[in-house]
Each structure stands twice: as C-alpha cells, then as structure tokens.
Amino acid sequence: MNFELTEEQLMIQQAARDYAQREALKDVLERDEKAEIPWEHIKNLRDLGFLGMTVSTEWGGGGMDTISYVLAIEELSKVDASLGVIVSVHNSLACWGVEKFGTQEQKEKYLRPMATGEKIGAFLLSEPEAGSDATQQRVIAEDKGDYYLVNGTKNWISNAECASIYIFMAQTHPEKKHRGINAFIIEKDTPGITLSPHEDKLGMRSSDTNSVMFNDVKVPKENRLGEDGFGFKYAMKVLEGGRLGIAAQALGIAAGAKERAVQYSKERKAFGKLICEHQAIAFKLADMGVKIEAARNLIFKAAWLKDNNMPFGIASAIAKLYASDSAMEITVEAVQVLGGYGYVKEYHVERLMREAKLTQIYEGTSEIQKIIISRAMLDE
Ligand code: COS
C-alpha cells in the first residue's frame, strides 16, 4: 500500500488549489449572492484542463487518473463547491459514460469537444416523479423507426444552462419497466428542448439547476447509447463515478470549513485565552480532522479501485455517504466555532454549510447510499 501522491498528482492538486485560492475566492461571495453562472471561471477551468481531465488523450482529454480528479474537485470545492459540481458533472456524468459505452462516431462527435471543455455536458435522469426511484421514468422516447420522438420533463438538472450536450434517459418500452429505459446523447439546441428559469437554491447558487422540457424532440437512432434497454444500467454505472466526484466535493467543503475554523480559533480570544486553547473548541477541531482524514481515505480507496479497473460502486457509495454526512456535521460545527461571525456571509462558513446540504441529496441521497451499501452486505 502506498499513500504517497505522485508528482503529477501533487502538481494537479497544486494547480487546482492555486486557482481556487487566487482566482475563485475573489468573487465567490458575489457569485453566491447573484446566483449567476460563472462563465469566466468555466473558461479558465477549461484552459487549465480541468474540463475533460479524466478523458483519455486519444479523445483530446487530459488522460489523468481518478486520484488527480478527486484532488482537483476537493481543492475547488474548498473555495466554491459550485465550481466543483460543474467540473464533476461534466467529467463523471457526461464524459465518462460516453467514453465507456459510446460508439466511435458518438465519441468523435460528442466526446471530443467535451474532452477539451469546448462543450460542457449535463446528465438528465431525475424527473418530477423519478428521483430516488429512478426506474419510474416518465419521459417517453417513442421508437419511430429511424428516430425516437421524445416528450416529457426532466428536473434538478445540474449544468442545464452551461452545458450544450445532454445525456438523457427516457422510457421506450414501458411494459419492460426499467429494462425498457434508454440513454441518449443530444445537443441542447435541438428543436423542441426548452428550459425553465434556473432554481433559486439554498446553496451551490452559481451552479445552474433547471428543469428541461422535451416537446416532440426528434432524436436520431444513432444517438442511443448502448443496446436497446441499456439506459437504466447506463445511468447506474455512470452514477458510481459521479458519486465519487460528489464525495470529493463534500470533502472539499468540509476541509474548507475546518481550515477557517482552525484559523479563527487561533485568533479569537475568550476568557483570557485563545479559543483553540479551550478544550470545548479543540475537541471540535479534532473531530473535524478525524472525519476529514477518514473521508479522504475512503475517497482515495474508491478512486484507486476505479483506476485499477476493479468494481468501485460500493466503495464510492460508502465514500459519498461518509463524506457528505461529515461535511454537514463539520460545517455546522465550524459555524459554531465562529459564533456570530459564522452566521454572516463574510466569513464563508455559513455558505459552506448551505453547500454541504446538497451533497447529502444529489446523485443519490444518503438514504440511497445506505440501500446500496446494505444490499451489498446482505448479498455477501
Ligand atoms: N450497475 C449496473 N447495474 C445496476 C447497478 C449498478 N450500479 N445498480 C442496479 N443495477 C441494475 C440491476 O442489476 C438491475 O438490473 P436487472 O433488473 O436487469 O437485473 C436493475 O439495475 C435494477 O436494479 P435494482 O432492482 O437494484 O433497482 P432498484 O429500483 O431497487 O434501485 C437503486 C436501485 C436504489 C440503487 C437506484 O434506484 C438508485 O441508485 N437510485 C438513486 C438514483 C439517483 O442517484 N438519483 C439522482 C439522480 S442524479 S442528481
């Protein structure tokens, strides 16, 4: 077992840290306030190679490993989890599945521009009545011979506005239930696709989240990903990697809050000494440090399994569950350490607390992760 990061991994970590601390931090409070898409940062992240970083060089991507990827997401999310999720959804939910299951033609047409970050991707699975129970797809893709006719609504779609390529799931054979679902890839500007205004969210406010409506959208047959009826499995496989990105995002949020709590506790005095010298505060910091270390190790293990082509779905569910629940606990405690200052925007920890909440919800709630983990245990 080797816990040392390689030189390349350290370089990527440093590049993400530098960008986050030097550039993203400057206007993060304004982005949170205005809830606007961070176009300038998206462009910069593309130029730095983070959008498409895990796609193989054969398709124009960065060819980086999953360890580098989680390190980058952690560093970005320490400062701004909205940037973390844009990078995560693009790499894990959009690029990875197309690279793994797409045809050569699909890769040439859609993966190549996503691999360089020229085009951003989004993943459309959730629907008003199909969230945790993703088998209940109501968006219909009617087989019309050489094309599919798609109708229905997707919601809670991250990157819906900033993306121009959509990977979406739809039901083709309702009688076959989840085995009738298909996955497709399509350009957002295809006639018949419209978006709702973006959601006004509690946190991750500059990451765009919208509903997407399909109204008689014609999708060519060759845009189906995988065999007929492979869509549900496609979504489940892709989410295994997505959850790892969200685990890293949660870790970043937690680590960002911990750093701020540690710093504050070394500056603030109460009862004649620094608050870090009070056991009540020091023990909170210790708990934060232990949870962060544990989360990081779970994430590294899942990433290592993925990089070594071993099954990583359960490890990724464990990492996401633990990292996101820990992020929630740690950010709440960080607000407590900062007291009144923790409750105002200028000190960042209240924003990190708002951001942490979403990591327990999207790409499979904490309860869904427990279903996955417990089923695997019972199957052993
Ligand atoms: N990889 C490949 N196939 C998988 C899979 C995985 N990780 N997980 C499940 N499947 C397959 C099963 O093998 C089964 O296939 P067959 O019927 O052909 O044997 C099929 O999918 C259905 O599996 P299962 O019966 O376990 O489905 P459930 O309805 O019980 O749901 C969970 C399984 C809970 C894991 C799934 O619904 C889930 O992940 N839900 C959360 C979805 C989510 O994350 N939503 C957020 C959207 S993105 S913001």
Brief description of this entry?
It contains 11 helices and 10 strands. It is of the alpha+beta class and 380 residues long.
Descriptors for this entry?
single chain; 380 residues; alpha+beta; 4-stranded mixed β-sheet; 4-stranded antiparallel β-sheet; globular; binds coenzyme a persulfide
What does this structure look like?
The chain has 380 residues and is an alpha+beta fold. The protein has helices spanning 7-24, 28-34, 39-47, 66-79, 81-101, 104-115, 231-265, 279-307, 313-338, 349-359, 366-379; strands spanning 121-124, 140-143, 147-158, 165-171, 181-187, 193-195, 209-220, 224-225, 269-270, 273-274. A hairpin with a 2-residue loop joins β9 (269-270) and β10 (273-274). α4 packs antiparallel against α5 (81-101) and α7 runs antiparallel to α8. The mean pLDDT is 98. The structure holds coenzyme a persulfide.
In the predicted model, the low-confidence regions spanning at least 5 consecutive residues are none
Global morphology: globular
Strand order of the largest sheet: 1-4-5-8
Query: Helix-strand pattern, N to C?
Result: HHHHHHEEEEEEEEHEEHHHH
Distance between the termini: 25 Å
Mean pLDDT: 98
Structure ligands: coenzyme a persulfide
Gyration radius from CA atoms, angstroms: 21 Å
Proportion of helical residues: 40-55%
What percentage of the residues does DSSP assign to strands (E)? Answer: 5-15%
Task: Say how many strands there are.
Answer: 10
Count of DSSP-assigned helices: 11
What structural category characterises the helix and strand content? alpha+beta
Q: What does the main sheet amount to? A: 4 strands, mixed
